[in-house]
Amino acid sequence: MKDSFDILIVGIGGQGTVLASNVLGEACIAEGKPVRSAETHGMAQRGGSVESHVRIGAEHGSLIAPGTADLLIAFDLLEALRYRHYLPEGGRVVTNSRFVPPTSVYMQNLQIPDESEILTGLAGLSVTCVDAAALAAEAGSTLAQNIVMLGAASVDIPLSPEALLEAVRKCVPKKTIEINEKAFRIGRSTDRGC
């Protein structure tokens, strides 16, 4: 029997995956739950993939094995497709509905995939799509997209919304607390579908 709830947060450099994992860690501490986490940055400075593994309740090991994640939070639609193998069939993914075309698309003159092609690649999973940019703008800043995504995923995470909001307050810069609180609440109340 599995002793943890495993969340993989993925995106590209600069989207705030590490901040989101820090928020989850702080919320676990507030609730007295053990937590393990690890980040892989790769070529993040050049728009490359970033992944953050968060294991709530885990006593050993910080990396999630492929096919065993309970939840995938993707800040970029293409990254949801790239990391889908971490979920079992029927697994849960909360993804941004937008994506940044990789540099290789332009460098190699490749065709940019459309949203429907990417969503076809996510068939067999339980998918929620979130227009994080629009919702973050509604909250007051497009820089709060990561907190919107965390809010949208929070209904699937075994942590209280109060602990998550308190963690947001601790982790974001003081001058952005109000915007990020609003972003979390807007994300949490978003529709659950694609």
Q: List how many beta strands DSSP finds.
A: 6
Strand order of the largest sheet: 2-3-1-4-5-6
Order of helices and strands: EHEEEHEHHEHHHH
Q: Rough shape? A: globular
Q: Roughly how many Å is the radius of gyration?
A: 16 Å
State the share of residues found in helices, binned by percent.
25-40%
State the major sheet: 6 strands, mixed
Q: Note the beta-strand portion.
A: 15-25%
Average per-residue pLDDT, rounded, comes to 91
Subunit structure: Heterodimer of the IorA and IorB subunits.
Pfam families: POR
GO molecular function, one term: indolepyruvate ferredoxin oxidoreductase activity
Protein name: Indolepyruvate ferredoxin oxidoreductase subunit beta
What features would you describe in this structure?
The protein has 194 residues and is α/β, with parallel strands linked by helices. Helices cover 38% and strands 19% of the residues. It is built from 8 helices and 6 strands. α1 (17-31) crosses α7 (161-171), α5 packs across α6 and α6 runs parallel beside α8. The chain is globular and about 50 Å long.
